[in-house]
Amino acid sequence: MNKTTVYVVDDDRAMCESLKWLIESVNMPVKTFSTAHDFLEHYDTNSHGCLVLDMRMPTMSGFELQEELSNSSIKLPIIFITGYGDIPMAVRAMKNGAIDFITKPFNDQELLDSINKAIKKDAERFACDGELNHLQGIINKLTPRELEVAKLIISGNSNKLIAKILQISPKTVEVHRAKVMTKTGMSSLADLVTLFIKVGYKQN
Fold first, then answer.
1. Per-residue pLDDT tens over the stretch 64-81
2. What is the distance between the alpha carbons of residues 127 and 133, in angstroms, rounded to a whole number?
3. pLDDT for 109-168, tens place per residue?
4. What's the DSSP call for residue 105?
5. Could you tell me the CATH number of the domain that includes residue 183?
6. In the chain, how many domains are there?
7. Does residue 114 sit in the same domain as residue 187?
8. How far is CA 1 from CA 30, 80, 110, 169, in A?
9. Is-contact 162 99, C-beta < 8 A?
């Protein structure tokens, strides 16, 4: 597992150093960047942690970086900090998925509490992603024909109807059905349905 890291992006060098000192004082690794572009260039998409992000920066603002991460399907939890905060900005940040919106000057403990909350959320996300990858791996064991049969099964079709839809014999459907249950390790139709729902398959 990759080490948890708190990323700080702020064009104010003094603020970066201050945040680095504060976060390291509670034994959390920190990486600081003076621009959003610098962060994007060095960020490891497989890393754990959170992003403490200044709202107003030259070239690429905090909002623009948040949008860039979202478009790249990067779900790193974001805590916005700004000296120019207002309610509309806070609402926009939170609607776009930010964990928190903190105005400068801020209370050190408030920021540390927010960072801890963000790191916990990130850990939960990785756990969910890990489970999803595991379940998808189970389904990937099926051949294309077995996957077809499985989807028809969980949609409530009988062996006879599946045979008619796929233009194969009911006996062949039974064989595929048995293989589906064996390969997925599911012991019942309910378990098979649950497996497919968890990976995002919607029943017809």
1. 999 999 888 888 999 999
2. 10
3. 999 999 999 999 888 887 777 788 888 899 999 999 999 999 999 988 999 999 999 999
4. S
5. 1.10.10.10
6. 2
7. no
8. 17, 26, 28, 48
9. no
Residue 116 and residue 148 in one domain: no
CATH number at 18 reads: 3.40.50.2300
Contacts of 197 (CB under 8 A, 6+ apart): 203
- 77 and 121 Cβ atoms separated by less than 8 Å: yes
What CA–CA distance (Å, rounded) separates 144 from 161? 18
Asked whether residue 203 carries a pLDDT value surpassing 70, the answer given is no
* Cα(186)–Cα(153) distance, integer angstroms: 13
Question: The tokens 């989807």 sit on which residue?
Answer: 151
- The residues near 201 (Cβ < 8 Å, ≥ 6 apart) are 151, 154
Q: Are 96 and 88 in contact (CB under 8 A)?
A: no
Residue 75 domain-assigned (yes or no): yes
Contact 36, 63 (CB under 8 A): no
Please tell me whether residues 88 and 181 are part of one structural domain. Answer: no
DSSP-assigned beta bridge partners for residue 31:
7
